[in-house]
Amino acid sequence: MKLNDWLNSEIPTISQSLEEIHREHFSIDKTIGFEGQESIYSLIKDFRSALFPCLCDKYSNVETRINISIGNKLRTSAINLKELIEKVLINDSSIHEDEAKEKADLIVIDLIKKLPEIRRVIQTDIRAAYNGDPATTSLEEILLSYPSIQSITIHRIAHELYKAGVPIIPRIMSEYAHRLTGIDIHPGASIGEYFFIDHGTGVVIGETCTIGRNVKIYQGVTLGAKSFPLDEHGNPIKGIKRHPNIEDNVVIYSGATILGGDTTIGQNSVIGGNIWLTQSVPANSRVYQTQPSPNIKNGQL
Amino acid sequence: MKLNDWLNSEIPTISQSLEEIHREHFSIDKTIGFEGQESIYSLIKDFRSALFPCLCDKYSNVETRINISIGNKLRTSAINLKELIEKVLINDSSIHEDEAKEKADLIVIDLIKKLPEIRRVIQTDIRAAYNGDPATTSLEEILLSYPSIQSITIHRIAHELYKAGVPIIPRIMSEYAHRLTGIDIHPGASIGEYFFIDHGTGVVIGETCTIGRNVKIYQGVTLGAKSFPLDEHGNPIKGIKRHPNIEDNVVIYSGATILGGDTTIGQNSVIGGNIWLTQSVPANSRVYQTQPSPNIKNGQL
Amino acid sequence: MKLNDWLNSEIPTISQSLEEIHREHFSIDKTIGFEGQESIYSLIKDFRSALFPCLCDKYSNVETRINISIGNKLRTSAINLKELIEKVLINDSSIHEDEAKEKADLIVIDLIKKLPEIRRVIQTDIRAAYNGDPATTSLEEILLSYPSIQSITIHRIAHELYKAGVPIIPRIMSEYAHRLTGIDIHPGASIGEYFFIDHGTGVVIGETCTIGRNVKIYQGVTLGAKSFPLDEHGNPIKGIKRHPNIEDNVVIYSGATILGGDTTIGQNSVIGGNIWLTQSVPANSRVYQTQPSPNIKNGQL
Amino acid sequence: MKLNDWLNSEIPTISQSLEEIHREHFSIDKTIGFEGQESIYSLIKDFRSALFPCLCDKYSNVETRINISIGNKLRTSAINLKELIEKVLINDSSIHEDEAKEKADLIVIDLIKKLPEIRRVIQTDIRAAYNGDPATTSLEEILLSYPSIQSITIHRIAHELYKAGVPIIPRIMSEYAHRLTGIDIHPGASIGEYFFIDHGTGVVIGETCTIGRNVKIYQGVTLGAKSFPLDEHGNPIKGIKRHPNIEDNVVIYSGATILGGDTTIGQNSVIGGNIWLTQSVPANSRVYQTQPSPNIKNGQL
Amino acid sequence: MKLNDWLNSEIPTISQSLEEIHREHFSIDKTIGFEGQESIYSLIKDFRSALFPCLCDKYSNVETRINISIGNKLRTSAINLKELIEKVLINDSSIHEDEAKEKADLIVIDLIKKLPEIRRVIQTDIRAAYNGDPATTSLEEILLSYPSIQSITIHRIAHELYKAGVPIIPRIMSEYAHRLTGIDIHPGASIGEYFFIDHGTGVVIGETCTIGRNVKIYQGVTLGAKSFPLDEHGNPIKGIKRHPNIEDNVVIYSGATILGGDTTIGQNSVIGGNIWLTQSVPANSRVYQTQPSPNIKNGQL
Amino acid sequence: MKLNDWLNSEIPTISQSLEEIHREHFSIDKTIGFEGQESIYSLIKDFRSALFPCLCDKYSNVETRINISIGNKLRTSAINLKELIEKVLINDSSIHEDEAKEKADLIVIDLIKKLPEIRRVIQTDIRAAYNGDPATTSLEEILLSYPSIQSITIHRIAHELYKAGVPIIPRIMSEYAHRLTGIDIHPGASIGEYFFIDHGTGVVIGETCTIGRNVKIYQGVTLGAKSFPLDEHGNPIKGIKRHPNIEDNVVIYSGATILGGDTTIGQNSVIGGNIWLTQSVPANSRVYQTQPSPNIKNGQL
What we know:
InterPro entries (chains A, B, C, D, E, F): LbH_SAT, Ser_AcTrfase_N_sf, Serine_acetyltransferase, Trimer_LpxA-like_sf
Strand content of chain A: 5-15%
Number of domains of chain A: 2
Structural class of chain A: alpha/beta
CATH architecture of the largest domain in chain A: Orthogonal Bundle
CATH superfamily of the largest domain in chain A: serine acetyltransferase, domain 1
GO biological process, one term (chains A, B, C, D, E, F): amino acid biosynthetic process
Keywords (chains A, B, C, D, E, F): Acyltransferase, Amino-acid biosynthesis, Transferase
Radius of gyration of chain A: 23 Å
Largest sheet of chain A: 5 strands, parallel
Protein name (chains A, B, C, D, E, F): Serine acetyltransferase
GO molecular function, one term (chains A, B, C, D, E, F): acyltransferase activity
Oligomer: homohexamer
């Protein structure tokens, strides 16, 4: 009974105090909150179902259903997304509410319009996985079991919203992809067609990266920033180009670290495993390390 | 009203076009789809509950329930798995439908039969974790909080299906484990008893690896392929032994990379952290790097 | 019909045998089981909602609801947590049942009491993320999309339970955080205010680490143990200080490995990427490696 | 353990035998089954939401949503209904499968087309309830708490399908209404505008009834059949007009029973409580019973 | 494809038209809607759990939980109810919004305060069922399987809200009880302690009924209105006393109909089955009908 | 804020007081509670699915599934039912716990054994409905839309448990049927094969009724008790034969009331609508009332 009595007498004060601390830093009614976060995860699933429809369910003999089902998912997603965008636009910037609504409409229309093109590009990514991994046996296997496809699908949607100036939502999307795959691509990164990440865990691709066509990356690769300048208050200066450029047809093996906004990997280059690069390399380079030969001590340990 | 009107007028065309792009590359009715993917995740959970039964729920005073509960989960899983296997067999290969059904039956029966043996082996993995980590305090803690056990449990099931020639499904299983743990073990890898991966994030174990008994691996270890040969069309040649062999009683510390199908780590060897190895080492080796002593600059930065 | 007949005749025996193997090693009725695991995941979500309340749902115009909602979540969480703690205390140790119940009450009361202070500290962590990442644009974005905040929130709760001597539960919490973020912090680690982990995948922070105030860590950093001593039965000796100390105002870049219980990184130091450190460095150090310049081979590959 | 053993050994036989008995009388794969039953209940709810849309949920500030929401519900309902109709048409009659599909399409299109008209008529029913019950205070109260509206809404939809020759489904709909309200209206009954049933429990309205405009009925009224003729095998002859006609502006008080296919209640008539009628009455009749005065025995019982 | 094309082209117009018809008669954003209806059903369940708590669930060994559980349900119900009341007050009457909020607070506080007294009275109803039905064997059986208790519990709550002037909500509650039990008690009816309805289907108790202590009613009984006066527009005049008074210790057998606002059944009376009464009877009456002896025709039919 | 403050300060006391009132009359931990009630509703659904299996779901091409599915439902139902029976036996009677468990086992085994026979009998009920209602067109329509079948199916199961002496549970089952159909059959009633109730709302069949083969009943029929004797404390004497016997081949039309334990309706008789009978009638009787001819007043009302 002790715990019960204590809860009855103390919970009101503790609740009050938790609410107050939170309110000091956050406006609790001008946020999309964890509920918005969950909505965005749902949106992603709906977009995925619309992009990769299947007749695998019980109504598989009904052609009509596929088309209706895609349409319904798009409609619902569009409305939900519009509302979330409206909300973050109003909260985040100095935009007028009416303008925010109008802008939200346009952003959503624009995204939905681009979906067929996004789908076309993802097909090149699927093809890249198929051609890039000897372990795979079918396109379907790639669609259903490759983290690369999950990650790049979410990225290509989030990137459109990022370009349209939507705050917060693209990052929630990219963090969702990060959670599912261990691949952390900032929605600001610009990535060309026919892109493949093998295994993927630990990959980090920074906000101002540009990546060309037909690039292949392995697990643990970082495309990051060098140290960044602070402003007079000691805060990092935002909006500077901080991450590298990867040109077409580049392969980057596992564990490589490439840093800096001025660093460009020229086309057709190959970057070896565990390479640490903070400077550009020209096209057609092959960058490798004579790995220091390890000491091997034979005999009874 | 603008968005609504636009959606009403444009969604049919966009849905149509998404469907068409997808159909060009995938047969939308000969797939297990995302729904099949979810079924496989459920299967995994059912197998887990059957392998590690507990009386922790509200009916904890009823002995009968445990046995019935295990049995029901096995029955349901068996039927669901059989149907999924049937479907992927028919879609994937040139097998006749009747033959596919018969084969699916046999594969499932074989897997269920092996479960007690699989469970026995996993118990050695649990024991390996207990003995291998000074931070743990009980077997139960390991079962409920070690990613290694989650990963190896799924692997040992997926590996059986892989050996039986089931397409796609084993990979969906292994990617599910990857998502949950950050440990990416291809279902083709052959792994001995008493296996333990500590922390685990970023571990990659390739399709044609063989790993002996009593092997311990830390986070970030890659057991991967060197570059792989292409066929005349520039596609990777599939089915070649590409990944290393790890013999009994080997320890591999965090971040080590071991590559190549001819690379064998002899029994009782220890591979140090961050080691890069593309050649075999004999039994009883201790492989380490004199880590380059870092430059330490004291003083006011 | 074949599979059905086989299941009908063989499942009872296989169920029986799975149950027996499990019972040999686990007491199936003295465990919190996978159900307890799920309860703990729910607890974490409830605590999160109480710590970061929002009026974002449909009743957003009702002030009362926030306070009631926080209170209800705390009450329910408190009761559920108390029961789980009771159970693991009784199972795990030689404590008497009545004592276990009393202890569980006190532990829960203590945790709930500390929540406002925990919340205050997490606010410093949110601020650290804001100041430490030029890519972010608002505190809300951090709360909703940074794995660092998710990880440290769970850690700060799990750590309290760890200090109170609760078995298993803190580890289930930390492994939940690991699964969501790829960041593996043992609940035993002691971490100061204003803590930030960027990206985070692959970070490992060991049980006996101590980390000061204003420390920043990047992805893939390990704060681990060197090899550990075995007792006369070959089992690791538990309870020894095995992991490093990180003093105030230290930055550790991606992929760095710092090992050993005697290793101390002095305050205001910076540890560079991929550094391997098994010895202490004094305050104000800057530890870096002249990264071996890679071989760059230009020209047609 | 006894129950468990018994179940393990006997369930296969009992299952087998249950399956066999069922198969003797039903074709287990040519049915919509209990699952179809549930789908129909859902359809009803979707139609209801489309007919009576509200902005009461959390997105209440978004005009667009209402329209989209109505549309999505109609689309989904249409597809689901079409499939169910297809199935019952194929199973039930000698129709060719292709023809069944085509017919199902037409029936659904026809129903959806009629919805606005159905909605208009239901509004007259709502108005009839408002004018007919002194206890009500608003149209909204009627919509949300009058069984009459629930019953007549379902009936007006089911009746359209009945007229189109759809088997089984209209009856499942009407039985759903019966379950919810205690009002049992056969989908074959033809009912005019501005219809109101007060309280309603126990009302029965038979298949071949015709009911005019502005009719009001109280609880426990039966509009039923007299005895019905049997064919030479002793089975009831189906398809005969068996139930009464109720003309415009008639009121029928509680517990009245009106039987027979030739029985017509002329317009503007009032039928008193508990009246038993098996013959027609002309227009403008007032039919009542001098209720036999009850024996009242005063005094100490 | 036909249905799909048709839906794509026609649904927008039909949705539009359904929305418009609805808007003509209802304000779609000033309603609690079907969602509010569902919330009220949930409220009822929560109140029921708070009034009849049980330790029957899995945590049955934790005393604390009962108390917390009751409290949480009351808190949540209170808040939800307050919001619904606020909404219907604002919509329904000419009350100012602030006043509505204040009034809603007071109404809810008042209801919660009365719950212990309501519970006490329901216990007398349970006792009345136990004493009134020879078929029952325990109080628990009555609580879990008697429609009378379900109906009167909901009524006693709805009646408080009715008295407090809350529109719509009490009627939604009473209609919920009607749906579950077939017993239709208007929330306006005033009912004394120790009340029992046996079987219950078809019972109707009108808005202005008053029922004394220790009254027992059987299935199919109507306590209704005679015809009611219309105003100059032909609408029923609302707010008149229209239904009978039943004094203490009265029994009314099945199918009896008692009508009229001036009709009083004196205390200790017994009304026989199928009696039709539109006038008062004094105390201690026994009202019965010499049931007309039926014609019994023996012999071969 | 007012409501919140009030709730915080008063809820603990009110909760306490609700708990205390309840505990005075009920033992809160020796009950199956509302949760048990819900379990029983689920059991009924599972039994229904086992008795009327269908291949209507998505796996309709898999013969094996039907058999497995029936078996799984029976197994789960058996275990759940056994636990509920155990609980009510222990609570309700003076039986020893071990004996209760053993008895529960036997009761469940007995019920499951009888299911094929129960199913066979229900098929005669389905046939009776088909032959007895000219409005029906197929057996499937009857199975999916006739309340009679739902009611009698539940009754035939509940009756077995009643005969086995299980307290409370059979009544919860019968009240569930009552809720769904408006037909209230006490589980004690004994009912022969080939039984049909048309429409059904308001039918009451008492505990000690016996009903022969091929009986047909219409809505609103009561087979009830006359007044019942009280013991010296004024409580009804339980366990006496109080309800009528209906012999084979009897038809009872709507609204008839037949009362008393000595009342027997001889075989092949027909009882007309609204008949009130408290005495036996011989075989082959036709009981009817010259319905008093109603007064019909023509002309302008």
